[in-house]
Structure formats: structure tokens, C-alpha cells
From TrEMBL:
GO MF, one example: oxidoreductase activity
Protein name according to UniProt: ER-bound oxygenase mpaB/mpaB'/Rubber oxygenase catalytic domain-containing protein
Domain ER-bound oxygenase mpaB/mpaB'/Rubber oxygenase catalytic residue range list: 115-309
UniProt lineage: Eukaryota, Fungi, Dikarya, Ascomycota, Pezizomycotina
Organism: Lasiosphaeria miniovina
InterPro entries (UniProt xref): MPAB (IPR046366), MPAB/Lcp_cat_dom (IPR018713)
Amino acid sequence: MAAAVDLRFPSGAWAWAGSALALYALLCALLRHRQQHAMEAAHPFPTRASLASMTHAQAYEIQKWLGEQEFPSVIAGSIFFALFKTYSVPSISQLLAQTGEIGRCGNGRRDVEKTSKRAADTSVLLTNMVVARPQSARAVQAVARTRFLHAAHRRAGRISDDDMLYTLSLFTLEPMRWVDEFEWRRLSAAERCAVAAFWKALGEDLDVPYRALPSSRAAGGAGWVDGLHWLEELDAWRREYAARHVRLHESNVALAAATLDIALFELPAVLKLAGRHVVSILLGPEVRDAVGLPPPPAHYETIFRIAVAARKFVVRHLCLPRPHWLRMRHLLDDPDPHTGRYHVARWIAHPWYARRGRWGPRAWLRWARGGVEDENRFHAEGYKIREVGPARLVGKGGDEMDEIEQSVRARRGTCPVATL
């Protein structure tokens, strides 16, 4: 009779495994905080008073590090949902519905391709404004192109100053809220100031008026002492604006449905309902009601909160920090040397402006869903920033954009708070 095999794990091995795990967790914590401390040492703001001296360049470096290395996935998601939340305001959603850029096919079905093109154009301009260096040609051109695309609507009164400020407030505040709620640590005061200072300066470049904020000199105020001061007033104003203007409207519902189409486009059909429930949770009750989404089942909320808590624990204790060479790249650095056109590094639903490719998980997924798409239809040759937008506006606005670029270059690089 064969002797029984002892499959028990040696007791001493458990102690070694536990010690190794504890040492690894300690290493993760040390390296994570070392990266944070290195950024703080490079841009020291030890006191609240010192934040008033933060320059545009410093604010850019800090917020870029947060978005590419420290909290890349959460911040990227927050920007998408910040844009989604603007659709809860009827004056904003009605204009977007009227432009036809988020449209329907002739048979009444939603046109996912058209919606994804509009999302791609918005992403291209926003990413170049936020990720490219403030003094670079592509960042300045993105500001100029965005202002040109808005100009006719603003002159006609179809886009109000308050709608512009509300949109800016969401892009400023949502990343902070998401990090504080979903990440392994909260933002420091200096990091919050940097995000605020960067978006405040970008808002000025985009000609967003701050007259509605109490300390605005345009409204007779004394100006803001630092980015946190501006942020506090912006948040208070946003809450009051949302209480008055976020409400249910048919155009909100239409835009939310179209946005869900692209957000959940790559999910298998069996997971789409679960995806809708997660989106509903992330939007929150006020916005959810305003865009006509039903509340998720209670158990989804519970599962979601448990998943968030588990992720926080794993990232804090078991994940090494992301080094610079593994940063989340939102932009490809150089244009095509032959055409001068840029390509996107990331995309949603359809590969607008992406390089031609047949390899990689997303290409294989597209093939599995029904074949390879016609890449030429999605402008695989890339984009030029001054041509981004609706087809009817390609090649237009050159003189106006030239003037805007000159004014933007003249003011960039100064302290974003002290200039007002």
C-alpha cells in the first residue's frame, strides 16, 4: 500500500509568507509617499500663505503629475462624468441637441458614430489644453479653436456666461471630489490649489467671466488671495446654480442616452444593465433624476461601495506607485512628420483620429464584434488642432484664432491668482 503524501503547508512557511507580504506592503507605502514627497519638494508650499505665489507653470506640473501618475484612471473618469453632468442643465443640453452633433439616424435610432465623433473632438481639444505644456503651440491652438467653436453661439446668446462658468466648475471640482471619494488618499491643500489655479487660468484663456464670484474684481471685489479662495467661491456658486438649473428636460434625457451608448459601447450586452447602474451611482441622485435615469437597486450601491473600499486598500498597500515611464499617456508627443497631424492615444467607442492598427486587445474586440471597421472613416490620418470640430467648420476661423493665440501667449506663465 502506497504511503500517504503529506500536502500540508509547513508552518514555518506561513511565517515567512506573512513577513514577506508585510515587507512588500511597507515598501509600497514608502515608495508611494516618497513620490508624493518628491513632488512636494520640487514645488514647496508649506503654508496657506505660500499658495498665493503658485505660478501657472507650477500648477500645470502638479496637476499633470496627478493626472498621469498619481490618480490617472480616477481623474480621467471624473473628466468624462464632469462633461456628462453638464447635460443635466436644459440650457446646455438643448443647444447640443439643436446642433445635431449628438444626433439620431433617419429612422429615429441614436447615431452612436456621430455622438462618438463629437466626444472625440471634445476630448482632443480638452486633452491638448490640459496635458500639453501651457506655452506649447498645441495647447494654445486648442484654446483658440475652442473659443472659435463657441464664439457664434455666445454672440447669439445661445451659450450664457453662467453656463460657461458652470461647465468650468465641473471640470475643476469633479476630479477633486472623485479623488477624495475613490482614491487611496485625499488631495493635499497644495494639490487642490494647483488644480484650481490651473483651471482658473484656463478659464481666463477661454474667456469665461468670473463676475458671478464675490471676490472678482470685475464685480467690485478685492480679488482672490490664492487658488483655494477661488475654489471655495466657485464651489459655493456651483451649488447655488445647480439648485436652480439642474432639472429634468427631454433634451437632457436624449443626450444622456446618447452618452450612455458610447460609454457602454464596448461592454457585452449581458453587462450593459450593470454598467447603467454603475453610471447611475456615479452621477448621483440630483443629476440622475435630471437626465431621466432610474435609481440603481440598493444592492448595487452596496457592492459598489465595497468594491471602492477594496480598491483603496489594494492600491494603498499592495500596488507600487506608477513611475514616470509608465505614466498614463493621454497625448502622443509628436505629429506625423509627413502630414503634421496628431493621433490620439486613447478613444471611446470608435477609433477617431487613432493610428491604423490590427493588433492589441481593442482591435481584437472590434473584430470579435463583427469585423474590422473602416479606419479611413474615422480619420486614421490624424487631426490638426485648428481643424477639429464639425465638418462645416473645417478650414474656417483662421484669422480669429490667430488673434486669440496672440492674446493667450501674452498672458501665460504669470501667477494665475495674482493676475486678477
